Amino acid sequence: MGSSKKFITLITILVTFYMFSCVSSTEFEVGGDDGWIVPKSKTYGDMFNHWASENRFKVGDTIRFKYNKDSVLVVSEEEYKLCKATKPQLYSNNDDTVFKLDRPGLFYFISGVSGHCEKGQKMIIKVMETESSTESPPPSPSSNSSSPSNSSSSLPASTHKKSNALRTTVQFSSSGFVVFAIMVVSVFGLV
Asked: Where is the segment annotated Disordered (predicted)?
């Protein structure tokens, strides 16, 4: 094979490798500028579920909770509904908690400070199963609750932002690299 054909083939392989083996992840700051706080009134009681419904989460993304003199717990659906956790999956009270969304499905978060969850400091995050399913918005986590419906005008300004993503990172998967290496070796006849 001529050197120009090898070069074009190598470029094609590099572009294909990049398209199929890149994994991106995003870090979101819970609640935007306000952070993980007790909602100021019942009007804002569902502000975290509203914030979560405005963002799209996928496996590998992280969420950052920033707070003062509080805590965050990852709990079961039942504990979320009761605002009480006897065996949380995670407990953190370090004022800056980062949680990795490591699987598709629902994640339930509550404040561990007595009374805060009951005042609305709780949240459900839905993590999408596949990249293509992020095109259609998930149902609002609070759509079946008995709380009054939230309109954009009744929420704090910071929840109106479409995305509160802090950063996006791109990583190459190890399996993608192996496929890439085999393709390069075969194209250049190194075996």
From this structure: 129-160
Mean pLDDT of 114-125: 95
What is the 3 state secondary structure string of the chain?
A: CCHHHHHHHHHHHHHHHHHHHEEEEEEEECCHHHCCCCCCCHHHCCHHHHHHHCCCEECCCEEEEECCCCCEEEECHHHHHHCCCCCCCEEECCCEEEEECCCCEEEEEECCCCCCHHHCCEEEEEEECCHHHHHCCCCCCCCCCCCCCCCHHHCCHHHHCCCCEEEEEEEECHHHHHHHHHHHHHHCCCC
Q: What's the whole-model pTM score?
A: 0.61
- List the structure tokens of 188: 């250049």
Fold of 25-167: Immunoglobulin-like (2.60.40)
